[in-house]
TrEMBL record, chain A:
InterPro entries: AAA+_ATPase (IPR003593), ABC_osmolyte_uptake_ATP-bind (IPR051921), ABC_transporter-like_ATP-bd (IPR003439), ABC_transporter-like_CS (IPR017871), Gly-betaine_transp_ATP-bd (IPR005892), P-loop_NTPase (IPR027417)
Enzyme class: translocase
Native source species: Kiloniella spongiae
One Pfam family named in its UniProt record: ABC_tran
Name of this protein: Quaternary amine transport ATP-binding protein
A single Gene Ontology CC term: plasma membrane
From TrEMBL, chain B:
Localization, UniProt: Cell membrane
Lineage: Bacteria, Pseudomonadati, Pseudomonadota, Alphaproteobacteria, Rhodospirillales
Gene Ontology molecular-function annotations: amine transmembrane transporter activity; carnitine transmembrane transporter activity
Listed GO biological process terms: choline transport; glycine betaine transport
Domain of life where this protein originates: Bacteria
Record-annotated membrane-spanning stretches: 20-38, 101-120, 127-145, 151-171, 192-219, 271-295, 307-327, 347-368, 389-413, 419-437, 444-460, 466-486, 577-604, 624-642
Similarity annotation: Belongs to the binding-protein-dependent transport system permease family.
CDD domains hit by this protein: TM_PBP2 (cd06261)
UniProt protein name: Glycine/betaine ABC transporter permease
Annotated InterPro entries: MetI-like, MetI-like_sf
Record organism: Kiloniella spongiae
Domain annotation ABC transmembrane type-1: ranges: 145-324, 463-642
Alphabetical UniProt keywords: Cell membrane, Membrane, Transmembrane, Transmembrane helix, Transport
PANTHER family: GLYCINE BETAINE/PROLINE BETAINE TRANSPORT SYSTEM PERMEASE PROTEIN PROW (PTHR47737), GLYCINE BETAINE_PROLINE BETAINE TRANSPORT SYSTEM PERMEASE PROTEIN PROW (PTHR47737:SF1)
Gene Ontology cellular component annotations, sorted alphabetically: ATP-binding cassette (ABC) transporter complex
């Protein structure tokens, strides 16, 4: 996250739907609300969004339906042309690319997973997974081999000759995931990949997804309408409403300090101690001397609950992964989080 | 002044649609009552006001044909087509042309058909496909059938290709689509004689012209289905294609077309069926085959042989329809990895082996190669006698004679005379009232223009005769078809088989329906109306059943829980919701009727069809086209009104 050059960087990106949208946007006054724009006859799907996504980071874009999250991710991959602003991928403004270059970018760097899978019904699992490779003209043998590799990776070995309709929803999405990984993309877009699945399978697929990300370490833009899912997966969450990003921050901080009322509504119902890690509550020691056993920075407050209740120190020493002391955590504050009192 | 104006417009604005409709309709009635007082141009367009469309068109056609050299182009096309037709003709019935290897023995073709049937849908289909060809051979109509098939074998792929390309263009370029859609709807309503004459003039008589007419006739549904299918491809599949880095060509080839497979194959099914329907009718321009034989047999009232040919045509139609429909729903099946090529292509290999074996067999066994006249099992004469015996039965002749008398004296003649007596202005106003009621000002205007053009062509009386046959037949069909449909829909045990029968009957080439009509009523107006009647009853029944069955079961349960009786449920719930669908059936019935009434020309009607048929003998393209447009415009006017109503109603009910 300390990478100076973000993989994807968008600056005040706008997407308006409606005739002559660019002209309208150019002449539009600043600070127009979604409603005002709608009264002018345009739908503002994306409103002045600026985001940087660092290499290896997982950014989850969270919003209810119609909040513009799907449109935003399509702007990042230029499935939709933006109306205003700038989207850079590895420093290259993607709106400057011609058709050939855009196709090239997608063939080399991008993979995408869709909510209802977007599988080609007339192709077997293997042929679906090999499709992007076929498009870029890889020879038959090569692409078969590579496709088999990813099929194994997502655990569909033995099903490679099946057709999509012969698979369950979860399995179909595994095919979608395998296909998006076939070209070894740097950037991985996932548009509500698990929303069409039933809750048990969804949970299983999330675990599977975290496992894959552990191995692959891609830069990920993940769309969801499920706040729990966002909290579970994200390095950072961007919460969208009416096309604009309301808040973009780590899960801990969003839960601890919601920036707007809208965000607060989501966090209200969340059991904060599950989300918040000791690190967030840790403060510099300022010369205090701390005694006794230390706690780990990446433990959640819930995991620490027994200790928090049993301990009688006011400040607990916190150490990071390498065992280095990074500061102290106020026990009272942590107990407040645990009991849901602010 | 301003005040007066606003009050005036205010008053017009406040008139309801119903009031305006009543006003227009009232005016139509007044026109009829005061006919003697009406100015002449409202009764009939006077001769000197009739515009010589036919001469203008003829000049235009001549200009295109000769001065622009279209004739050389079309003759060029026809020589290419002829080359293809010669190949299929040689292979199927041994016409002495390159490649000079035919004819393929009938056993070989029947066996291959059976294997294809098995591949597509198992034993039953194999039996149907193989059995059809065995029947054709044994009944002694192999050559006739193969003459017909040889044209279909060329026309269907051509129509498919052209339709597919046009469909892709229409999908890709909305402007092209807007331009082509009206042309397609005119093509779909033009009477087939209007296809035939240009085909003859531009592409010579015989198979080539027949083939061209067939191709053009079969293209429209292919275009529509292709566009529909491509538009329906799921958003995400398209995006997945883009994200996989497909170029435009790759998108079309690997994403859009395969994903639209179902609709495209439905288009193929329609192409094949329309090809068969048309190719039978090309008998009228001297195209040999089943149609020509049937035409001559019916003209000489050889009912037994007509009956046999009818069965052949029906069997071929059902086979082609079922095979292509099975292809639509056939999904690829996977083989485990490492399955050998031979296992994967088991049926292909069996097919090839069976084909070769039967060809070898045919070298040694004459019956397997071809059936001679003495060997065939045709019983034309016997059937003839049986039919005549049955028809001579007192009860049947009593019924048909009475029906004939009743229909002619009490329904057909009075109605026809009434239509002919009505002033043109009256008819147009009444149609405008309909149009206004359904679709407002725009529809009324459209209908007025359509009928106005007909009046101006000077073919008003002939058009009214056509219209009379259509309307009386469709009304009778409605009186029969809708109650039957309702009765069938209320009994689940019956609705399935009756739907199947209707579906099957709809695949028959329209020509077939004339056979029973002529058998029962011999050659006169009643036979025409009767043929239209059965032809039009089928869609009416079918859509009635489908409409009623499509009513959501929750609504029926709600009605049950509200304590509705069976009849209340039917009248208050099922029928209102089924009406839009039933209207589609009614529309189809009218379109079918317009088609059929023209075919019936050879029985000796006095309408547009008769005039159209006469033009076939000469090369008066202009007149042919004007007559064709008259039929087309009437059909389009009805089509517009009914479909508009159906769609509005559907929207109002919130069902689709």
């Amino acid at each position: 996250m300390n990478d100076i050059n973000p993989v994807i960087s968008c600056k005040s990106v706008w997407k308006l739907f409606g005739g002559n949208a660019e002209k309208y946007l150019a002449s539009m006054k600043k600070g127009q609300s979604f409603e005002q724009i709608r009264q002018a006859g345009y739908i503002a799907a994306v409103r002045d969004v600026s985001l940087d996504i660092a290499r290896g980071e997982m950014l989850v874009i969270m919003g209810l339906s119609g909040s513009g999250k799907s449109t935003l991710v399509r702007c990042l991959s230029r499935l939709i042309d933006i109306t205003g602003g700038e989207v850079k991928v590895d420093g290259q403004d993607i709106m400057d690319l011609n058709e050939r270059e855009l196709i090239d970018l997608r063939r080399k760097k991008m993979g995408m997973v869709f909510q209802s899978f977007g599988l080609l019904p007339h192709r077997t699992v293997l042929e679906n997974v090999a499709f992007p490779l076929e498009m870029r003209g890889q020879d038959r043998h090569d692409r078969r081999e590579r496709a088999m590799e990813v099929i194994k990776l997502v655990g569909l070995e033995g099903r490679e000759e099946y057709f999509p309709r012969e698979l369950s929803g979860g399995q179909q999405q595994r095919v979608g995931i395998a296909r998006s990984l076939a070209i070894e993309p740097d950037i991985w877009f996932l548009d509500e990949p698990f929303s069409a699945l039933d809750p048990l399978i969804r949970r299983e697929m999330q675990d599977e997804f975290l496992r894959l990300q552990e191995i692959l370490g891609k830069t990920i833009v993940f769309i969801t309408h499920d706040f729990d899912e966002a909290l579970r997966l994200a390095d950072r969450i961007a919460i969208m409403k009416d096309g604009a990003v309301e808040q973009c921050d780590t899960p801990d901080k969003i839960v601890l300090n919601p920036a707007t009322e809208y965000v607060a509504k989501f966090t209200e119902e969340i059991e904060k101690s599950r989300v918040i890690h000791a690190e967030v509550l840790t403060k510099p020691i300022n010369g205090y001397k701390l005694e006794g056993a230390s706690i780990s920075a990446d433990a959640t407050i819930l995991q620490l609950s027994r200790q928090l209740i049993g301990d009688n120190r006011d400040i607990l020493p916190v150490t990071n992964k390498d065992g280095v002391l990074i500061g102290g955590m106020n026990r009272q504050e942590a107990l407040n989080v645990l009991l849901g009192e602010n | 002044m301003a005040i007066v104006e606003t009050r005036l417009t205010g008053k017009i604005g406040s008139l309801t649609r119903l009031q305006i409709t009543q006003f227009l309709f009232g005016l139509a009635i007044i026109f009829a009552i005061i006919k003697p007082l009406l100015p002449e141009f409202l009764v009939r367009i006077p001769v000197e006001m009739i515009l010589p469309y036919d001469i203008w068109l003829q000049t235009l056609f001549d200009f295109i044909k000769d001065d622009l050299g279209l004739l050389t182009v079309t003759r060029g096309i026809s020589s290419v087509l002829e080359w293809f037709l010669d190949i299929t003709a040689n292979l199927l019935y041994g016409k002495r042309r390159w490649p000079n290897i035919g004819p393929v023995p009938w056993v070989a073709i029947a066996v291959v058909a059976a294997v294809i049937g098995f591949w597509l849908k198992g034993w039953k289909m194999a039996l149907l496909a193989g059995g059809t060809f065995v029947w054709v051979a044994l009944i002694g109509q192999w050559k006739l059938a193969m003459q017909t098939m040889s044209v279909i074998a060329v026309a269907a792929p051509m129509a498919f290709l052209i339709g597919l390309l046009l469909g892709i263009c229409a999908w890709k370029y909305p402007r092209f689509q807007r331009a082509i859609m009206p042309v397609l709807s005119i093509l779909q309503t033009l009477p087939f004689f209007t296809y035939l004459l240009p085909a003859v003039i531009f592409f010579k008589v015989g198979p080539t012209a027949g083939c061209i007419a067939t191709i053009i006739y079969a293209i429209p549904p292919m275009v529509l289905m292709t566009t529909l299918g491509l538009k329906k491809v799921s958003h995400e599949v398209v995006e997945a294609g883009h994200m996989s880095g497909s170029t435009r060509w790759q998108m079309l080839r690997y994403v859009y077309l395969p994903a639209a497979r179902t609709e495209i194959l439905v288009g193929v099914n329609q192409v094949i069926m329309l090809c068969l329907a048309m190719v039978v009718l090309t008998a009228f321009i001297g195209m040999p085959g089943l149609g020509a034989k049937l035409l001559s047999l019916m003209n000489s009232l050889k009912l037994g042989r007509s009956f046999e040919i009818g069965i052949t045509i029906v069997l071929i139609a059902v086979t082609l329809d079922r095979l292509s429909k099975a292809w639509v729903v056939k999904q690829p099946e996977h083989f485990e990895r490492g399955t050998s090529w031979f296992v994967r292509h088991k049926l292909l290999i069996i097919g090839i082996i069976a084909f070769i074996v039967s060809i070898i067999l045919a070298q040694f066994v004459q019956v397997a190669d071809h059936i001679t006249r003495k060997q065939d099992l045709s019983m034309g004469k016997d059937i003839d006698n049986v039919i005549r015996a049955i028809l001579a039965n007192d009860i049947i002749t009593g019924v048909t004679d009475w029906l004939r008398w009743f229909l002619i004296t009490w329904v057909l003649i009075p109605f026809r005379n009434a239509l002919l007596w009505l002033p043109t202005g009256s008819v147009i106003l009444a149609m405008a009232a309909f149009g206004y009621f359904v679709g407002g000002r725009k529809s009324a205007l459209l209908v007025v223009i359509f009928f106005g053009v007909i009046a101006l062509t000077g073919w008003w009386d002939r058009s009214m005769i056509t219209l009379y046959a259509v309307i009386s037949a469709v009304i009778l069909a409605t009186l029969i078809g809708i109650p039957l449909g309702i009765a069938a829909a209320r009994n689940p045990k019956w609705s399935e088989p009756i739907l199947l029968v209707c579906d099957t009957a709809q695949t028959f080439p329209s020509f077939i329906y004339l056979i029973p009509a002529i058998m029962l009523f011999s050659v006169n107006d009643v036979a025409v109306v009767f043929a239209i009647l059965i032809f039009a009853t089928v869609p009416l029944m079918r859509y009635t059943i489908e409409g009623i069955r499509a009513v959501p079961s929750e609504l029926l349960e709600a009605a049950d829980m509200a304590g509705a009786t069976r009849n209340q449920k039917l009248l208050k719930v099922q029928l209102p919701l089924a009406l839009p669908t039933m209207a589609v059936g009614f529309n189809q019935a009218i379109m079918f009727a317009f088609f059929m009434v023209i075919i019936a020309a050879f029985i000796g009607t006095q309408d547009l069809g008769q005039e159209l048929q006469k033009t076939l003998a000469g090369n008066n393209l202009g007149k042919n086209f004007v007559l064709g447009m008259c039929v087309s415009l009437m059909a389009l006017a009805f089509n517009h009104i009914i479909m508009r109503w159906s769609n509005d109603r559907r929207k109002a009910l919130g069902v689709g």
